[in-house]
Each structure stands twice: as C-alpha cells, then as structure tokens.
Amino acid sequence: MELLWSDLKYAPADLVTPFERVAFTDPARSLVTFAVTNRVDLRRQRIHPYVVFGGGITADSIAYTPLLNVSQPTPQVVSEGRVAHVSAYLSLVVGGGIAFRVSPRVSLDVDLRGIYMRGAPSQWGRIGVGATYRF
Hints:
There is one protein chain. By secondary structure, the protein is mainly beta. It is 0% helix and 74% strand. The protein has one domain (2-133). The chain has strands spanning 2-8, 15-16, 20-41, 47-70, 76-79, 83-101, 106-117, 124-133. Strands 1, 2, 3, 4, 5, 6, 7 and 8 form an 8-stranded antiparallel β-sheet that branches. It is elongated and about 75 Å long. The mean pLDDT is 89.
C-alpha cells in the first residue's frame, strides 16, 4: 500500500464580459492517491528495472479565491471568500523504474508512474525518488 501526494500548479483563466471580470486568485491544486500496488523486479542485480501496477482512490482538490470586478454602474470589487472543490475518483497506477541496491535489504528507486482516474477530465504522471527496505 502506498500514499502518493502531488502539489500541482493550477491557474484557471479569468472570465471577462463587457461589464464585469472574474479573476481567480491564490489558486491551489493537489492530488492524493491511496493505492494498493504490486512491484515486480525484472532482474535481481545491483541495478535492476521494475514495474509497478495497482489501483486505489484519488482525491483531486482545487481551491481558489474569486474576485468580481464590476464596472457598471459604479466600479467595485467583490470577494465572497475562498472556494474549494474535491472530487474522488477510482484510479489505476501503472509505471516502472530503476532500483539501485545499496545493501541486500535497501535500494534507492527512481520511477515514473501514470495515474489514470476514471471519469476525470485529465490524467497525471509522476516522477518519484524513494527508498525501499525489504524485510
């Protein structure tokens, strides 16, 4: 089992009409995935490739502060506070990487994983670095 967290850059486009403009300030987006994964080592040498696959649940969190600029009849700026939206998706994690064995039980890993979220408008990839300890 593993918990993956990614902080993403997010910049929604402003909405503009002739008499008003909505600007989205202080945007934030993060993905949190809890997945049950399997790792298959393709060779058992000091440096060896591996593949990872599994599934779980991903929470996609988006937050921003909208500012409404109205130019008619008198100019004013209105802010209603912070807006947050969280969507949960079933997810599939597939990827692979290379492990560098430091000792018989410890290895340093570099991997690339794709996260497919069923029903989401976009999919994500992740590059990770970590350590593995074998019991």
